[in-house]
Amino acid sequence: MIFSNNFDLTSLGQLPDRGLQDLENTPIQISQSLLKDLGKETFCPRRLYESYILGKRTDAEEGTALHKGVCFEYFINESTGVGGKKPHIPTKKGGEMPVDYQRLKQQAHFLNSTVLPYYNFETYLDDVELTTEFKCDELPHPIFVRGRLDRLAFRDGKLCVIDFKATADIDNEYALQAWRSPSTMDHTQAYLYMWLFIRNKDYNSHGYIPDFYYFVFEWGPKSDYTIIQVKWEQSKFREVERSIIDGYNKMIDLHQKKWPKDPSYYECKDCPIKNVCDSRKIVKDIKIVQ
Length: 290
Ligand code: SF4
Known about the structure:
- By secondary structure, the chain is an alpha/beta fold.
- The chain is 33% helix and 18% strand.
């Protein structure tokens, strides 16, 4: 059991809809997206509860960045992603795809036919789910850490992890991920995935340290792309493990606070219970300057 039951979970208001028993028996699985969410300046704890404890998902709406990213992966390797469903590719009245999707399909073809061979990448496996049990003195019990790698590949005989990204504009300095200046980015995902792979005995019985690459392609009119390699260092073991422990402790703290709602336009937009939540915020906050 992950949580202590020394407080009344039935007082969670309209939650939990799967019942007290389920919540207590549902272990927290730490993932890179959970760690990123917990690291945000503000977030809605109830959304995290719904997404990461109850496992509810928000289907990517057509036209959104999330949906374009899902379609890009499908164009690359027919990946059906986490949900295991082929994404619906939108078409216009004449039957052709909207221009952003057309560009992503062309980008996927360019990636497969030109970029990967040019750099000597050979695909090994796609859509690799990794889960590891993590124990340490600072945790009351073992916890599970998971990740889904887009691709394992060999480059010049060396194993590497590849993550595919689609973006509107690589040069957008206001975007959450500043792909043009990767040294300023948060690389939680890259290091966590390398850490998971190093520990995985099924794919990596010798504890081999992989390289990690982001392949970032635009759907905007420039159709630009960038490839970023993130290097592992020995100090990353401790950093990754520290962030897992801190993330776990934050989840316990939120549980004790009963997962309060903290609505904001961007949190609510992708929340799995946005259609039933009475606190949903549908307009953006007014920005105040002095
Ligand atoms: S709709 Fe908004 S306020 Fe309600 S749980 Fe989701 S993110 Fe939180």
